[in-house]
Amino acid sequence: MTLQELYRNIDGDYDQALKVLRMDKLLDKHIRKLTQNGVVDRLVEAGQSMDPTQLFEAAHAAKGVCANLGLTRLAEAASEIAEEFRPGNPRLMSDAEVAEKLLQIAAQYEKTADGIRKYEES
Known about the structure:
The protein is mainly α. The protein has helices spanning 3-9, 14-21, 24-37, 39-49, 52-68, 72-85, 95-121.
């Protein structure tokens, strides 16, 4: 499986990731690390406590990593959580809506992680 095929399978934006990382070699290195670095896992776990600081920090980190890797759906969803919990911003979502959004993020991440594992095996 090629990087381009991986990105098609996980609904990622290969061209965007390549603009940021500039080389397939770096993109390959960093997409493989996603399943090990725990950045999305920390976001989902932060939802268990609904601690605003933890949610903001975890969402902000996940947004950056996912955006750099061209994982636009994950980046956009993490951005929504980051903005919801950004200090000084009024809350617009209920805790239940935040929990639902985090479930969606977890499902999208699982699809992405499965795709990355298949890519690593090929």
